[in-house]
Amino acid sequence: MGEIFTNATQDMCRKMNLPEEVLGRLPVITMVGNRSVCIENFDKLIDMSDEKMVIGCKKGKLKILGKELWMLYYTSSEIMIRGKIGEIVFEA
Fold first, then answer.
1. What are the CA-CA distances from residue 18 to residues 12, 23, 38, 43, 61 (Å)?
2. pTM to 2 decimals?
3. pLDDT digits (tens, 9 = 90+) for 43-87
4. DSSP codes, the chain
5. More confident residue, 89 or 6
6. Residue 4 in domain
7. Distance between CA 61 and CA 83 in Å, rounded?
8. According to the model, what pLDDT value does residue 22 have?
9. Which CATH number belongs to the domain containing residue 32 in this structure?
10. pLDDT per residue over 1-58, tens digit each?
11. Domains in the chain: how many in total?
């Protein structure tokens, strides 16, 4: 039943020309310079250090690489990371 609902929702979004992130399936990444990044629509925090953070998403992993990385806040809907961000990689 869950698959039928998901397919129907995806079909409705396509017909209404809504982006897939509206369904909460894709991460939404907002970056300000190289100092902060906010990630919405994520599943879990997988790994965390001052040089790398790995965020689990529904369709892969998001790696944030840099220096002096730290988490400003973490909620069920978004996470804010600050520091000297050097690279963001999405692995499907």
1. 8, 9, 22, 22, 23
2. 0.77
3. 999 999 999 999 999 889 999 999 999 999 999 989 999 999 999
4. -HHHHHHHHHHHHHHTT--GGGGT-S-EEEEETTTEEEEES--EEEEE-SSEEEEEETTEEEEEEEEEEEEEEE-SSEEEEEEEEEEEEEE-
5. 89
6. no
7. 20
8. 66
9. 2.60.40.2000
10. 456 556 776 777 778 877 766 666 788 999 999 999 999 989 999 999 999 999 999 8
11. 1
**Cα angle 88-57-64, degrees, rounded to a multiple of 5:** 20
CB crowding 47-76: b at 16 or more within 10 Å, else e = eeeeeebbbebeeebbbbebeebeeeeeee
Which single residue is written with the structure tokens 């991460």? 27
For residue 59, the model assigns a pLDDT of: 85
Q: How far apart are CA 53 and CA 70, in angstroms?
A: 9
Are 91 and 54 in contact, with CB atoms under 8 Å apart? no
Full residue range of the structural domain in which residue 76 is found:
25-91
> Are the CB atoms for 34 and 86 separated by under 8 Å?
yes
